[in-house]
Specification:
By secondary structure, the chain is α/β, with parallel strands linked by helices. It is built from 16 helices and 11 strands. The strands form 2 sheets. A 6-stranded mixed β-sheet has the order 6-7-8-9-11-10, sandwiched between helices.
Length: about 375
């Protein structure tokens, strides 16, 4: 296959909205070999390591840990490759290393237990900071393994907040402010315009670049970064517009759910759908994953996601339906704009229990 076929720079906005990024078409084996070499180089000889989600929250935690300990090797990971990241930490870090896991929540202990126990056995101190919705069973198992786990209130704290209050260190004001502005976006408060800048910069920048910049400047990004963001947002806004335009609205039980498809910034799309009167939004991505966003009238996004190979917060969750056996399935996904994935996720909404009083009132904040 010629490189130009998957080159994002040659795609129109319309086609880019429908297709996944070029990294999707690189076989996992190739990507894993590259990652293995990079992680080995990063972790070899490290006395402090951070395994973190590479979004603004996880990377802010990395900056905070480095403020305390001077240096810390960063391994970025998502929920589905957390076990691999922990195995690499166990294999390559120095015996007795300090290890931090930030902004990540496993669905079950079995997914990470073996690797985590090896990390605890080899390390001197393993701490885990998060703010997602943990089950009591998983949290207890992680603590029983010897991990200092601190889980913040997902309605009030981001993981950076948890790190600030949990690390025994007097952080400078600008790093405390970094945590506060990160929370503003991560909890979708949006009272501080700088929080969108942090979120966008963490998405477009290399994780190490992001950590270096916020470690020096906190939430007040330098002018050259602001200019970079302004250039990138031209295309970002166009992709958001495409996703909003192709959205459908479904009535599911007592809820109005906006459902769309596209490569886009899911939070902004969800906000646009909320302004159109939806209680929840589903954004299915060309890669096969999906984001589920709630509102004050729907705080059960994590319950929907758990039914479809995912998890998250009451108002913000993610998943990837198990629908793709080969490239033909993905081709169908792209040409139908995620039709099967949309239906599976809507069925998960339908599976939620709610009482008739809520249905009559048109609300959806039922307790689990």
């Amino acid at each position: 296959m010629e490189d130009w076929v998957i080159d994002d720079d040659t795609l129109s906005v319309e086609r880019k909205s429908i297709l996944p990024g070029e990294g999707f078409f690189v076989p996992d084996s190739v990507e894993e070999a590259k990652e293995e070499a990079e992680v080995e180089a990063e972790l070899t000889g490290a006395d402090v390591a951070v395994v973190a989600d590479p979004d603004a929250d996880g990377l802010a935690c990395t900056a905070l840990v480095r403020e305390v300990y001077g240096e810390a090797a960063l391994v970025d990971a998502g929920p589905h490759d957390l076990d691999d990241a922990l195995e690499r930490v166990a294999e390559y870090t120095e015996p007795g290393a300090r290890v931090f896991v930030c902004d990540l929540c496993p669905d079950t202990y079995d997914e990470v237990g073996g690797a985590l126990e090896t990390v605890v056995e080899r390390g001197s101190d393993v701490r885990w900071f998060d703010h997602h919705q943990w089950t009591d069973t998983v949290a207890e198992a992680v603590r029983d393994a010897g991990v200092d786990l601190v889980v913040g209130d997902s309605d009030a704290e981001c993981t950076a907040d948890v790190a600030v209050r949990s690390l025994d260190y007097e952080f400078p004001d600008y790093l405390v402010e970094l945590a506060a502005v990160t929370r503003d976006h991560d909890l979708w408060i949006r009272d501080d315009e700088r929080s969108d800048d942090l979120a966008d910069f963490s998405y477009w920048a290399d994780p190490e670049e992001y950590v270096d910049v916020v470690a020096e400047h906190g939430p007040n990004l330098p002018a050259e970064i602001e200019e970079f963001l302004a250039e990138m947002r031209v295309e970002k806004d166009a992709l958001i517009e495409k996703a909003v335009a192709r959205a459908d609205v479904e009535e599911v039980g007592p809820w109005t759910v906006g459902v769309t498809y596209g490569r886009c910034s899911q939070n902004e799309v969800a906000e646009a759908l909320r302004q159109q009167g939806t209680d929840a939004a589903v954004v299915v991505k060309p890669s096969g994953s999906a984001s589920i966003r709630g509102t004050d009238d729907f705080e059960r996004a994590h319950e929907v996601a758990r039914q479809v190979n995912g998890g998250g917060h009451p108002k913000a969750a993610g998943c990837k339906p198990d629908l793709y056996d080969d490239m033909l399935d993905y081709a169908h996904h792209w040409t139908t704009r995620g039709a099967v994935a949309k239906q599976v996720i809507l069925d998960a909404f339908r599976n939620l229990e709610y009482d008739e009083a809520e249905a009559a009132a048109g609300t959806g904040a039922a307790e689990e």
